[in-house]
């Protein structure tokens, strides 16, 4: 008698990855293989601030080069599983655009920070440390999860999805106190989180409403922090918002939602955010239903096989 196979519900979790995510995973794995076979390639592909001026392309390539096996495993798994949730909701084109913009702007911010730290400290470490990895985009993905399904509770962590970016930042900062390589990943995670929020907050185009960004209060910058800190964060965030992104109140028809006689309709600011969360919740429910159905079908098949063998 052949031994019965375990139910297939668990295996269904590891299927359904999008073609785009699979292609990007191949790029990450291929980049890692290249730098392992040709270590000198790191000098041309990773972000080395002292060499960025002649090798400006490393502002783009650095995000897709993982130098360690742990890094490539985390980045590939994160891309496949998070991309499976985000890409169907955003669309492949918007998903790819998000990756490119967040990766590039994160590299630019890391480059400027490294140059600034060098002039302040005069330590050449900041100029010649090769910085690379997909962690900046992964941090931006967590912001996307926060936006789409903020109140979805994660059973493994016992927290709501809206706290994932903040938790990832907190853990990274804590770990940085116990490692000597924090300069190679911490700035990327910090700027990746912020650039992901900037893109989704102000720039992401939504064809169904012809609006840009997400101006809802539930996605404000202060929501990354505990409640007792928000009264301090909000005024500071407003100053930076007006400096870098302009005044939203000057264009209420484009950013604040629907208007009537020049005045914003009550609750219109959160209409688009609510629709996005509903789409995210629907997509999540559909995936869970598919997995449960597949698990039930495979369980029944296993039982039939077992009964036939008996």
Automatic annotation (TrEMBL):
Pfam families named among the record's database cross-references = DUF1751
Matching entries from InterPro entries are given as: Rhomboid-like_sf, TMEM115/Pdh1/Rbl19
Q: Which GO terms describe its biological process?
A: retrograde vesicle-mediated transport, Golgi to endoplasmic reticulum
Q: Where in this protein does the record put region Disordered?
A: 254-279
Tell me where the transmembrane regions lie.
20-48, 68-86, 98-119, 125-149, 185-203
Topology in the lipid bilayer is annotated as: Multi-pass membrane protein
| Keyword annotations from UniProtKB, A to Z | Membrane, Transmembrane, Transmembrane helix
Origin, by domain of life? Answer: Eukaryota
- Cellular compartments annotated: Membrane
Principal place of residence: membrane
Question: A Gene Ontology CC term for this entry?
Answer: Golgi apparatus
- Name-wise, this protein is Rhomboid-like protein 19
């Amino acid at each position: 008698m052949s031994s019965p196979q375990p139910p297939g519900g668990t295996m269904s979790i590891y299927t359904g990855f999008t073609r785009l995510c699979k292609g990007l995973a191949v790029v990450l794995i291929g980049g890692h293989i290249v730098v392992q076979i040709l270590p000198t390639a790191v000098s041309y592909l990773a972000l080395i601030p002292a060499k960025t001026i002649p090798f400006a392309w490393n502002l783009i390539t650095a995000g897709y080069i993982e130098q360690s096996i742990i890094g490539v495993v985390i980045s590939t798994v994160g891309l496949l599983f998070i991309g499976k949730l985000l890409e169907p909701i955003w669309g492949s084109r918007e998903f790819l655009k998000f990756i490119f913009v967040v990766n590039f702007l994160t590299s630019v911010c890391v480059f400027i920070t490294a140059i600034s730290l060098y002039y302040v400290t005069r330590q050449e470490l900041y100029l010649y440390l090769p910085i690379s990895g997909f962690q900046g985009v992964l941090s931006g993905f967590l912001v996307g999860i926060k936006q789409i399904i903020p109140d979805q509770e994660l059973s493994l962590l016992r927290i709501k999805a809206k706290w994932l970016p903040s938790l990832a930042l907190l853990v990274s900062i804590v770990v940085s106190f116990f490692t000597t390589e924090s300069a190679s990943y911490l700035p990327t995670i910090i700027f990746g989180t912020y650039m992901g929020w900037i893109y989704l907050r102000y720039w992401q185009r939504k064809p169904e409403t012809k609006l840009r960004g997400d101006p809802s209060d539930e996605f404000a910058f202060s929501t990354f922090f505990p409640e007792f800190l928000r009264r301090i964060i909000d005024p500071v965030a407003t100053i930076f918002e007006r400096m870098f992104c302009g005044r939203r109140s000057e264009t209420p028809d484009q950013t604040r939602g629907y208007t009537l006689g020049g005045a914003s309709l009550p609750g219109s600011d959160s209409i688009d955010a609510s629709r996005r969360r509903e789409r995210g919740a629907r997509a999540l429910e559909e995936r869970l239903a598919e997995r449960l159905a597949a698990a039930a079908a495979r369980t029944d098949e296993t039982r039939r096989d077992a009964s036939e063998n008996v």
